[in-house]
Amino acid sequence: MTVREAAVERWGQFELSLAGPQEGNPYAEQELKGYFSKDGHEVSVRGFYDGGGVYRIRFMPEQEGRWTYRTESSAAQLNGHTGSFECIPAQAGNRGPVRVKDKYQFAYADGSSYAPFGTTCYAWIHLDEAMQKQTLATLAEAPFNKLRMCVFPKHYAFNSTDPDCYPFVKKQGGGFDLERFDPRFFAKLEQRISDLQQLGIEADLILFHPYDKGRWGFDAMESSSDDYYLRYVIARLASFRNVWWALANEYDFMEEKHMTDWDRLLQLTQEEDPYAHLRSIHNGTKMYDHASVVFYDHKQPWITHLSVQHWDVTMPPIWHREFRKPIVVDECCYEGNLPQRWGNVTGEEMVRRFWDIIARGSYCTHGETFADENDTIWWAKGGKLHGDSPERIRFLRTILETAPENYKPIPEIYDVPTIGIEGEYYLQYFGIHRPAYRIIELPEGSSFKAEIIDTWEMTITEVEGLLNGTSRLELPDKIYQAVRLTRVS
Amino acid sequence: MTVREAAVERWGQFELSLAGPQEGNPYAEQELKGYFSKDGHEVSVRGFYDGGGVYRIRFMPEQEGRWTYRTESSAAQLNGHTGSFECIPAQAGNRGPVRVKDKYQFAYADGSSYAPFGTTCYAWIHLDEAMQKQTLATLAEAPFNKLRMCVFPKHYAFNSTDPDCYPFVKKQGGGFDLERFDPRFFAKLEQRISDLQQLGIEADLILFHPYDKGRWGFDAMESSSDDYYLRYVIARLASFRNVWWALANEYDFMEEKHMTDWDRLLQLTQEEDPYAHLRSIHNGTKMYDHASVVFYDHKQPWITHLSVQHWDVTMPPIWHREFRKPIVVDECCYEGNLPQRWGNVTGEEMVRRFWDIIARGSYCTHGETFADENDTIWWAKGGKLHGDSPERIRFLRTILETAPENYKPIPEIYDVPTIGIEGEYYLQYFGIHRPAYRIIELPEGSSFKAEIIDTWEMTITEVEGLLNGTSRLELPDKIYQAVRLTRVS
């Protein structure tokens, strides 16, 4: 028995390693649970077999102070271990897991604001080590604080990489042994989640996806295997504070699954995860037809927020009214020049969608898809970024992060998407519209500073003088402009 | 009794003028009908009082040959007139009224193609004569073949013109006498419809609209006055071959009307018009929210086509599936720089919407709304055009008019909007998408010429060599490109 004696910071990771039986199939045959207690409050977590006779229990303490624990197991060797550790305050850079704050926003568990500015590298952990390091180096310099990434490998256009290992081990004679996990794979995945954590990036982990088409069969496992996989993943990963559960990508394209499967899997995720990490499910859709967008019923209590695919930036207010949960438009087309419609918008258009969506009180996610001789495309494999949008997304992030904390969409200003706090602060975005001027009406007795933001040129120009009452604000006769109004008295 | 003895061309206008009673209110008190016969086929048309003791019956013959007529009236003076005239073949430039051809297209009555390329001058006939002449001079040089225009004057932003006369005469002491029409007004309107006819422009005549707000009260008349007005308008104007009946603009913004009113008025229009001119009704809507678009039930048999307001160019295929009638997106925002969201898109965006809508088998309408010191804005008053889009719309019109006559949308090509004829001709538009290349799959054994069309620069570049089978077509890494594929063998 090895116990890390060091104190664990709040939202850090405590790990208990135990030697146990190796015979048979320990993944399937042994049950191990840890019970962590403090002040009469107990949290139960599932342990897992990590190969080589080693079992582990991981725990993320959410309160400071002295925690005690005990184990229960079907195996005598693993049963009845007890101990304790001290949970100390979170250290710099650790603000805990991201939670839903209200209908519109997210926040870290320590109460500080978190606005998702995500990007997408679906299969990056399935590339070679050098490429993964390159991706991490790029992310270290990029403006993103969330990464959409898959557990299972991906078989899709521009991506036919066969990884060196898989969540499951291969069977002799072909196929996978869906009862035995591969600890090497999970060690790699955990390393990457830790790396992202170091960079302040949330791992929006896609647990199932349709990009398989019979190559490995992970999109068409039996329900029992899906559940078995899910329990193991959660047992291993839930104690990483930066994990989000993205149950599936383009779930509606997975022909072997039914809606009842998604209900069950989402509920299982909710049950198995002691920390209630964010849970979402992402739709696919035909690109042409609003009617063909099939959203999961996001009113279900086991869904924390919307992680949707849609190209119409005017939709979020409608979804807010219906579902009353924060919205991340995780796919709205990517900056690039692929033949595929989802992967060939300009940097201007990518940035416009970010602004248009954020100015409606929602969030948008980046991806990059430039045709490349070697098919090294960021959106699938990571690597380097080439586009024009990340710099502008950083500019937008800076602006949003200096907005008052509790900003909301202001639908009363019906003609220009606007977020802010009535009477205090307004950030409005004109997008493809280019008014020569705007009549601004401000509350009586107040004075506002006005700034004109060129979202593409990344300039902020303060308007001379203060605005009061009803005034006419001259605007540049250009697209991609925003106005920021801040009350000064 | 005066009869124009000259032969009348097919779809021309025969007019019979009769002297009749002037006492009382002849508009309301006298009934006059004309019955026109040829080969046992009879058409009944309503006559109308034109002031000064003159009554008129107008008739548009739709078949060549000898027509005879007789009159019936409540007034002895007007009753029992008979006569005949010769209907000769249509002369150059006269192709008859525009009809619905099929689910997607319109055609002139002579069978030749008509694709609407409209513009908008809502209140142009209410301006002074010099200004109207200016508008006509502009239209003579512009690429448009349809004009959206109102009968009633317009009270709205940037337009507070009080016209010199109205459909109804003023009452002494204020207000209008809703039982007495003003023939001066109708003479002017008819002159303008004729002027448009000379220019080959269809008059998409808006019979009711909400831009009044108590100033004149024409948006809030009693049902009986609405019907009375409609009968008179149709009696006077139906014989102009280039008239379309646009029952209302933004009908859903007319608070004094109910859906049953629109049903009744549309059915009345259908009954009163012997020639079955096109009939539509145009929705208003909040700009932000798809859910707030309230379409009239376009499945009703008294609606010939959709004349809609919407800003989402991807919607037409959905409406086609539902309503199975040709679609004109008569408002999708205007080129300009007004503060209002509907009036401040760029020329690029206006042209993009035209292409995106036309490439989905529908039609789009132009408007121009540049802020102007004197509030002389094309969309309301006519005058001159200043924008960048008309020239590009002309370019597009040329391309569409050289497409094979029976082109249709090809939804099987799901990723890029495409019209054409399968195996023969494809016109596809990439819009804001900028693929670096496209994989083209053509029917076996065929060869196609490929052209790359820069819709903004107005260039057509033929690709070297012919395409066969599956080929990779390199595209410029630019937005606003189209591809035209024409079978050569």
From TrEMBL, chains A, B:
Top-level taxonomic group: Bacteria
DUF5060 domain span: 8-73
Domain called Apiosidase-like catalytic: residue spans: 103-362
InterPro entries cross-referenced by the UniProt entry: Apiosidase-like_cat_dom, DUF5060, DUF5605, GH, Ig-like_fold
Organism: Paenibacillus arenilitoris
Chain ranges of the DUF5605 domain: 415-486
UniProt name for this protein: DUF5605 domain-containing protein
